[in-house]
Description:
single chain, mainly beta, five-stranded antiparallel β-sheet, Insertion sequence transposase protein
Amino acid sequence: MKTPVDLYTPSARRYNGLPEIDYPFHDRDALVTNCRRICIYRKKINISTVLAGQKLGIKEVDDGIWLVSFMHYDLGDIDLEQRTLQTIDNPFGTRLSPMC
């Protein structure tokens, strides 16, 4: 029986990564650092290592409360007083294909 390393061949297609992400309806952009944080008004808020290096859109929705978005998905709200991200339940949702 062959192992995966015996069967692997590199793809002929080149991967260029994600396109440049723009957030025109947000107040500002924030880059997630390699240590999983964004900085807003000199306050460091932990986000996720999964999003390290990605640009997020943030928009103030209330005094000291900011909505955090990645691409066209809302991830949750940041409370600047508590310096925490309150995530939305499964922001990506379940995507079911209609049964034919």
